[in-house]
Amino acid sequence: MVIMLTIPVILQAAYVLALLLGSSMSLALTGRLDKALSMLLEAHALAAFKQLELFRVFSDIKGPFRGLFLLP
Fold it and tell me: Which domain of life is it from (predicted)?
C-alpha cells in the first residue's frame, strides 16, 4: 500500500522538478535526477544571490519610499 502511494508521488515530484527547470520530462525520467537536482540547487543559489543583490540596491533608496522596497 505504501509503495503504491509512493510511486505516484515520486513521479509527480519528478514531473514538477522537470517543469521548474524548464527542461523536458525525459531529463527526470531517464535516470538523470542527479543532474536535475544539481540544476535546481544552482537555480536556488542564483535566485538567492539575485535577491541579495536586489536587497542591496533597494536598501540604498533614501526618502519617503524607502520602506516600500525592503524585501523579506
Answer: Bacteria
Report field, pTM of the whole predicted structure over 0.90: no
Asked if 25 and 17 count as a contact pair (C-beta separation under 8 A), the reply is no
72 residues of the chain, pLDDT tens digit each: 445 556 666 666 666 666 666 655 555 566 666 676 777 777 767 776 766 666 666 666 665 555 555 444
CB contact set of 21 (below 8 Å; sequence gap of 6+): 27, 36, 39, 40, 43
Residue tagged 520530462 (cell numbers): 25
**Closest to 43 (Cα-Cα) out of 20, 10, 18:** 20
61 is written with which cell numbers? 533608496
Nearest of 40, 36, 16 to residue 27 by alpha carbon: 36
Domain total of the chain:
1
